[in-house]
TrEMBL record:
Source organism of this protein record: Brassica napus
Protein's name in the database: 3'(2'),5'-bisphosphate nucleotidase
Family assignment from sequence similarity: Belongs to the inositol monophosphatase superfamily.
Residues that, per the record, bind Mg(2+): 71, 136, 138-139, 289
EC code: 3.1.3.7
Length: 355
């Protein structure tokens, strides 16, 4: 398999980070939540997850220059009054690495300075040249805080193209969530999806050594039989526009609204057939919200484009320049979906201009 060494390192890093996140989610304390300027909550797990991934990738892939584009930096943790939370994150990261005996590989127990440096390894700007790892340490922070879906999303860009992606989804059932937003408590949860370019997409249980199984997107051809995913958070998707598109397609099933790139994982194994994401005007998509998910879906036979049908371009740095939004479907449904999207957007624009 291409990128075998990189994939092994990425799976280890994402799985360990997910283990750390699970531990924090189980005992979520109010003091773990910090506010950030954009009002999205940042947790102890967010910082800890980024530090774990940074440290594991650096240690596992020593022979190459290391560039990481990631969501967090340590600025808030360096402020007065953050000492307690910084100590807690450092202990959490050390405990997580110790479970795999990685503290020895990293030479010693980490200090708070080591932790801050590891977090700040994620300040690369990315771009069209060279290799860049791309990380969202907790994609779906609000879902994480609610006890719902979130993902550790890690991808690799090479010369601006996505060549590898790993999604660790600790709360996603191993069985399909089609038509059922809330799975039964008896379902086994925790999925690891991974893909490398030209090799397909695979899924395995997050916390076991079971053999991975190859997955494929839904083969539904009739849009009336298709189900679609959209973001749980209204800020991330214009639900009325999605509803108009679904109506034009004749989709009968109600939307499944879940947080994070867990949607991409669920789509890659055929739980749904369509994903619609239309953020509010002015919202700029970040590459870490889509890099890993995009290759997981495309290697499973799906198509990921902007609303105009153009492939996503991850070579421009931290942000995606998009036409209106992001749409995902299989090859059969995509032409129909693109037409419904165009028609619905045109109708909305006409209605707005007449006001």
């Amino acid at each position: 398999m291409a990128y075998e060494k990189e994939l092994d390192a990425a799976k280890k890093a994402a799985s360990l980070a997910a283990r750390l996140c699970q531990k924090v989610q189980k005992a979520l304390l109010q003091s773990d939540v910090q506010s950030k300027s954009d009002k999205s909550p940042v947790t102890v797990a967010d910082y800890g997850s980024q530090a774990v991934v940074s440290l594991v990738l650096e240690r596992e892939l020593t022979s190459e220059p290391f560039s990481l584009v990631a969501e967090e930096d340590s600025a808030d943790l360096r402020k007065d009054g953050s000492e307690d939370i910084l100590q807690r994150i450092t202990k959490l990261v050390n405990d997580t690495l110790a479970t795999e005996d990685l503290t020895k590989a990293i030479d010693s127990t980490l200090t708070t300075d080591d932790l801050l440096r590891a977090i700040d390894c994620g300040t690369s700007e990315g771009g069209p040249n060279g290799r860049h790892w791309v990380l969202d340490p907790i994609d779906g922070t609000k879902g994480f805080l609610r006890g719902d879906q979130y993902a550790v999303a890690l991808g690799l860009l090479e010369e601006g193209k996505v060549v590898l992606g790993v999604l660790a989804c600790p709360n996603l059932p191993l069985t399909s969530i089609a038509g059922n937003k809330n799975s039964s408590s008896s379902d086994e949860i925790g999925c690891l999806f991974f893909a490398t370019i030209g090799s397909g997409t695979y899924m395995q249980p997050l916390d076991s050594k079971s053999e991975p199984v190859k997955v494929h997107v839904s083969s539904v051809e009739n849009p009336e039989e298709a189900s679609f995913f959209e973001s749980f958070e209204g800020a991330h998707s214009l639900h009325d526009l999605s509803s108009s598109i679904a109506s034009k397609l004749g989709v009968k099933a109600p939307p499944v609204r879940i947080d994070s790139q867990a949607k991409y994982g669920a789509l890659s194994r055929g739980d749904g057939a369509i994903y619609l994401r239309f953020p509010h005007k002015g919202y700029r998509e970040k590459i870490w919200d889509h890099v890993a998910g995009a290759i997981v879906v495309t290697e499973a036979g799906g198509i990921v484009t902007d609303a105009g049908g153009k492939p996503l371009d991850f070579s421009k740095g931290k942000y995606l320049d998009l036409d209106t939004g992001i749409i995902v479907a299989n090859e059969k449904l995509m032409p129909l979906l693109l037409k419904a999207v165009r028609d619905s957007i045109a109708e909305q624009e006409k209605a707005s201009s007449s006001l």
